[in-house]
Amino acid sequence: MMVVTIDGPAGAGKSTIAKQLAIRLGFAFLDTGAMYRTVALAGLRANCDWNSESQLARIAKESEIRVTENHVYLNDEDVSQVIRTPEVTEVTKHSANNRQVRLQLVELQRSFAAENNANDKGVVTEGRDQGSLVFPTARCKIYLTATPEERARRRVADFATQGKSLSYEEVLRQQNLRDHQDESRSLGALIKADDAVEVLTDGMSPDEVIEELALIVSKKSN
Ligand code: DC
Questions:
Q1: CATH number of the domain encompassing residue 169
Q2: I need a labelling partner for 110 at 20 to 30 A (CA). Which of 5, 100, 135, 197 fits?
Q3: CB-ligand 1 contact for 200 (6 Å cutoff)
Q4: How many domains would you assign to the chain?
């Protein structure tokens, strides 16, 4: 059974696109960023000393993290919404930079794919290191990106639809910071796998992107 990996920088529209693609293909969907966010939430709640890598690793080990297609659970509590708050987003770098946490989550990600594949279900998995590190032998790897300016413009527009006004310059500055963090992490850094197909989505609508990805997947399935 097939694993489709979708990696790329923040704001490239990966989550929405990957989820829609999974629905279209009848595959299971895995949002790996949600897992790093959930560990960070567990750390926040346990008043973790962020300078102590071993403390966060222990908190992660003692937490039960369960992901389904549309929800994430921390010790049986549905945390799908709370992990998206700015407070959690801000501290997620600590879980993403923690080697022990990464090793634990990579194992969970591989089990998710193995279980679904065993039930004859393909998987679309989305993150930063899915094609490069977690599923090096995945049949179809996509690197979804857009220029920094386009990603920042989309983000400002998204917030505007929620009635929030954000400065484009500030969004771009924060985004550059996150790109740098994602690209420079010692394990699981954001990198395009050699055999990934790069899709630059500037000027494309979400439907056009999904269409293009579905085409890439169908070519790889044959
Ligand atoms: O995609 P996202 O914004 O929900 O991801 C949250 C954070 O987790 C982001 O800063 C990058 C990190 N992440 C990661 O290091 N590896 C992944 N496979 C997915 C996300």
A1: 3.40.50.300
A2: 197
A3: no
A4: 1
